[in-house]
């Protein structure tokens, strides 16, 4: 017997029955982001490795340890994208979008790839939906973007998600903070976990968001980045908070929020969910300002701010909510042995007229078809036999119980639509 081949570890299949909740999240985002003026951008899944090295940063976990990097047949070093901000920025620069309009708002969605240690809410192929606003350096842009995420979470019906904000300063004030932090951490080196002792040399900011309790205790007593902000950075941060207040967006200031990518300046933020189902993967999204990235990638000096939400984690939360996202059929058509072709034709016509129709192409006994109708969760069943065909009249049987409704075969769609919505059927198995 041939050996079975399984999918790649950390990369999941999404099958019908589960995909509906994903589609709900995506369509909610599309509608809402559209209202805020964001247009969709699609970039390739593979980029020149240098793009991520120069933007996300060589010393980050993402680039240093987690990228799927390979050589193509022409000897180029390519990487599966681990995130969406750098590819969008690359496209923005390549198409000289700044020469076409002063402010651009883009969103993207799709799979990202990181070779991470797998656990609940942490996969090797995962999905993000993110947005980027280019050309506006004002704190109002940061606030508007956060408001968009808040409205997105509301539209999904997800509560108990907390917005954390912080400022990492800029090239003027961050070096002093950085130096102070490194001095402080070095004096507590022995108390840090092994990973953080290495981070101390390579990427000291990351020590601040280590999950290890001892490292957290060290970080909590360390220097506070907000006390090091220069005047323009401080004003940006206070203005941001004022605007969030005006919008009624609730937030907490968390001076230890650093995020795992190098490209941020000033504002950084994260949305953290309280639900225990996410375990340690409680951050459902995050982002920040990256005013220097475009220039660093050889592009124009254009400020930008963006975020990415993890779809896998939003879907986990929605599944916990117990809501069902599957659209059940409006109608199941069952036929006797003389009416199979007519049933097939009627189903085809009603689908053209916009109904969701289930029909058992295998035929079989009426009893087995009725069983199937029950399982399908359809609102109504219509039995089509010789008598219905000759009279042109049939009955709509409500599957939730109650009286059947007489219907003319040439008026089925309108009659189904006119029926009041009955309570939901049992979930489709
Ligand atoms: P990041 O690009 O690391 O800021 O991630 C943004 C969001 O993507 C996170 O808040 C998570 O919700 C999600 N995310 C990041 N890495 C993973 C992963 N390996 N598996 C699932 N979701 C992830």
TrEMBL record:
Catalytic activity: tRNA(His) + L-histidine + ATP = L-histidyl-tRNA(His) + AMP + diphosphate + H(+)
The keyword S-adenosyl-L-methionine belongs to this UniProt entry's keyword annotation: no
Compartments in which it is found: Cytoplasm
TM stretches of this protein: none
Residues reported in the UniProt entry to bind L-histidine: 83-85, 114, 128, 132, 259, 263-264
InterPro entries in alphabetical order: aa-tRNA-synth_II, aa-tRNA-synth_II/BPL/LPL, Anticodon-bd, Anticodon-bd_dom_sf, His-tRNA-ligase, HisRS-like_core, HisRS/HisZ, HisRS_anticodon
Any one GO CC term of the record: cytoplasm
SUPFAM superfamilies linked to this entry: Class II aaRS ABD-related (SSF52954), Class II aaRS and biotin synthetases (SSF55681)
Predominant location category: cytoplasm
Span of domain Aminoacyl-transfer RNA synthetases class-II family profile: 1-329
PROSITE patterns assigned to the protein according to its UniProt record, in alphabetical order: AA_TRNA_LIGASE_II
Class of enzymatic activity (EC top level): ligase
Keywords for the protein's UniProt record, in alphabetical order: Aminoacyl-tRNA synthetase, ATP-binding, Cytoplasm, Ligase, Nucleotide-binding, Protein biosynthesis
Record-listed E.C. numbers: 6.1.1.21
BP term (GO), one: histidyl-tRNA aminoacylation
GO molecular function, one term: histidine-tRNA ligase activity
Classification via NCBIfam families: hisS
Entry's family note: Belongs to the class-II aminoacyl-tRNA synthetase family.
HAMAP family the UniProt entry points to: His_tRNA_synth
Subunit structure: Homodimer.
Descriptive protein name: Histidine--tRNA ligase
């Amino acid at each position: 017997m041939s050996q079975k081949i399984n999918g790649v570890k950390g990369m999941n299949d999404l099958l019908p029955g589960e995909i509906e909740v994903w589609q709900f999240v995506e369509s909610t985002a599309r509608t809402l982001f559209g209202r805020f003026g964001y247009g969709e951008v699609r970039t390739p899944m593979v980029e020149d490795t240098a793009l991520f090295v120069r933007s996300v940063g060589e010393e980050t976990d993402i680039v240093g340890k987690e990228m799927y990097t390979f050589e193509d047949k022409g000897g180029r070093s390519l990487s599966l994208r681990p995130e969406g901000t750098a590819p969008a920025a690359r496209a923005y620069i390549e198409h000289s979008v700044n020469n076409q309009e002063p402010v651009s708002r883009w969103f993207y969605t799709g799979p990202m790839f990181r070779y991470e240690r797998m656990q609940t809410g942490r996969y090797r192929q995962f999905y993000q939906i993110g947005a980027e606003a280019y050309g506006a350096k004002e704190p109002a842009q940061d606030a508007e973007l956060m408001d968009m995420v808040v409205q997105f979470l509301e539209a999904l019906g997800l509560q108990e998600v907390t917005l954390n904000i912080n400022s990492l300063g800029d090239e003027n004030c961050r070096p002093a903070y950085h130096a102070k932090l490194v001095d402080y951490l070095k004096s507590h080196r022995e108390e840090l976990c092994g990973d953080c002792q290495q981070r101390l040399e390579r990427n000291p900011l990351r020590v601040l968001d280590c999950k290890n309790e001892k490292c957290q205790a060290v970080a909590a007593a360390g220097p506070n980045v907000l006390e090091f902000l220069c005047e323009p950075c401080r004003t940006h941060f206070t203005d941001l908070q004022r605007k969030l207040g005006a919008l009624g967006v609730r937030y907490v200031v968390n001076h230890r929020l650093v995020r795992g990518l190098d490209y941020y300046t000033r504002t950084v933020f994260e949305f953290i969910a309280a639900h225990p189902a996410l375990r340690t993967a409680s951050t459902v999204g995050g982002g920040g300002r990256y005013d220097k990235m475009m220039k660093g990638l050889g592009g124009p000096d254009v400020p930008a701010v963006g975020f990415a939400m993890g779809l896998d984690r939003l879907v986990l939360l929605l599944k916990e909510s117990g809501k069902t996202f599957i659209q059940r059929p409006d109608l199941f058509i069952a036929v006797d042995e003389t009416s199979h072709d007519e049933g097939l034709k009627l189903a085809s016509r009603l689908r053209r007229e916009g109904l969701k129709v289930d029909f058992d192409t295998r035929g079989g006994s009426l009893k087995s078809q009725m069983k199937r109708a029950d399982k399908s969760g359809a609102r109504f069943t219509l039995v089509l036999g010789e008598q219905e065909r000759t009279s042109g009249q049939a009955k709509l049987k409500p599957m939730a119980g109650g009286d059947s409704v007489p219907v003319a075969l040439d008026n089925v769609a309108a009659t189904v639509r006119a029926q009041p919505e009955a309570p939901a059927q049992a979930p489709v198995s």
